[in-house]
Write a structure and sequence with these properties.
Length: 488
């Protein structure tokens, strides 16, 4: 595929997104932007959430990570199911009962001002990092496929990437995203299926040959039982459950889609079908990853490299795009590129909307029923600029397999949010607007970081629930201290 043909495909795809944006932009009020007027069909939300949850990181990094982790990622995915069950049974009823726009408003109602602002602040940090990493990946592929041939600087590629998101989300926010996410999920899954079919055709594999070849390869181990490494099954399963809880149930980005459903029952149906589809799709991406490396081994294709500070480093994240764009038929390459754009933008566009929503509601105190459109536009622009800056910083530090970078960031930034919500839901104790809440949350992150550095035992992603537990214990101590002071 030539850079010009790839550019034409990209422009055509974004033209379709803009048409959807125009069709859904009749109501540009804050209520429509934040929760879509609570009129979103649950089946569209469920289907769209698959793409938003997987994102461009999964689309590329999960197949690339098969080389080192094999099918071990499924251990976390199985844990997701437990996490989604807890979200549907515990968190969603709370959010709907309180009629929340920002889920962090719950912390204000239950634990007071400082808990509320701290939880919202940690979300903003978490989502900025996560969205920046996702956008970094799609910008890197755009650079590889289009702009490097024309010597366009990477910074310009990033700016174009973010500008396109801003243009089709700034009017109607979640109303537009529910529909664009569904379209983007369709293209992502189409690309997955066609690429697997294309690889099987090139390798002369039938359906039975496909699974036999994957099973006999060096990439198919699913369960890891050694208790010391971070990829131990129990560690990964428990971590997956907590990651699902914090990155979906305690994340304004993902919950904002659920809160746009007509009722709690619809939102719970959405969560059930979303979780089932997600397990199947993640397994299919791992099968694709094994096929990619089998294909590379069979054809003597070298591992792609990425330049980091002038040094060429192996880049498993670029295996899928390199083969799809350079070694597959035109239809597969075209579908892959559209699928990548769809996967990356389905998570990044909603992240930008969620960041805007959280900041407006949680820090600017937007009130329901009042129009603050001008201020909302400014906030939307400011977060776009912030993402641009973070992506350029990450480009100087880029590591292999971004999927793990996403989860590493989540271990520390979502831990305090997990502790705050757990304390509020599992106890009836109060912290009485104590500023010590802020210090406890920050201290939990710092202590977790040093625990994670201990030699002799790899905590892996278990550091996330440990982080949450430290926050929980700190809040418990504050509550006892406050109770003792009140008795004096």
């Amino acid at each position: 595929m030539t850079p010009l043909s790839v550019l034409f495909i990209a422009l055509s795809y974004f033209g379709l997104l803009f048409l959807i944006s125009l069709a859904t932009s009749g109501d540009s009020s804050d209520d429509a932007f934040f929760v879509g007027g609570k009129k979103s069909p649950w089946y569209l939300v469920a289907f769209g959430m698959v793409g938003a949850s997987l994102s461009g990181i999964t689309f590329i990094s999960v197949p690339g990570a098969v080389q080192g982790a094999q099918f071990g990622y499924m251990q976390m995915v199985f844990g997701y199911l437990l996490g989604y069950l807890i979200i549907a049974a515990v968190l969603m009823p709370i959010y709907y009962r309180l009629n929340l726009t920002s889920i962090y408003t719950y912390l204000e109602k239950r634990l007071g001002f400082y808990a509320y602002k701290t939880g919202a602040a940690f979300f903003l940090v978490s989502r900025v990092i996560g969205a920046a990493l996702r956008l970094y990946l799609v910008a890197a592929v755009l650079q590889l496929a289009i702009f490097s041939a024309w010597d366009v600087p990477f910074a310009a590629t990033v700016a174009i990437t973010i500008l396109l998101i801003w243009l089709y989300t700034f009017r109607s926010g979640i109303r537009t995203i529910v529909f664009t996410d569904s379209l983007q999920t369709f293209f992502m899954l189409l690309a997955l299926v066609l690429t697997i079919v294309g690889l099987c055709s090139q390798l002369n594999f039938g359906f039975a040959d496909l699974f036999k070849a994957v099973d006999n390869s060096n990439y198919s181990q699913l369960f890891f039982w050694d208790w010391k490494p971070g990829n131990n099954f129990i560690k990964q399963f428990v971590s997956g459950a907590f990651i699902a809880i914090v990155m979906t149930g305690l994340d304004q980005d993902m919950m904002q889609k659920n809160l746009s459903c007509r009722s709690l029952g619809d939102a719970q149906k959405n969560m059930f079908w979303f979780s089932i589809i997600l397990v199947i799709v993640n397994f299919a991406f791992l099968v694709l990853g094994a096929l990619l490396f089998i294909y590379m081994d069979a054809n003597g294709i070298a591992m792609p490299e990425r330049m980091v500070n002038g040094i060429a480093k192996p880049a498993s994240d670029l295996v899928f795009p390199t083969i799809a764009l350079n070694n597959m038929p035109f239809l597969v390459g075209t579908t892959f590129f559209i699928g990548l754009l769809a996967a990356a933008y389905s998570s990044a566009d909603s992240a930008l909307t969620a960041l805007t929503t959280s900041f407006c509601v949680d820090f600017l105190d937007f009130e329901k029923g009042k129009s603050n459109r001008g201020t909302r536009y400014i906030v939307h622009i400011c977060f776009s600029i912030l993402l641009f800056c973070v992506i350029l910083i990450y480009n100087q530090l880029a590591n292999d397999a971004l999927i793990w970078d996403i989860f590493k960031a989540a271990m520390f930034t979502y831990g305090p949010i997990l502790g705050l919500f757990s304390f509020g839901i599992l106890t009836n104790r109060k912290v009485h607007n104590n500023f010590l809440v802020v210090l406890v949350c920050v201290a939990a992150v710092v202590i977790s970081y040093f625990i994670n550095k201990l030699d002799g035992f790899e905590f892996g992603f278990l550091i996330l629930p440990i982080n949450g537990l430290l926050t929980f214990i700190g809040l418990l101590l504050i509550s006892y201290k406050n109770k003792a002071m009140l008795k004096r």
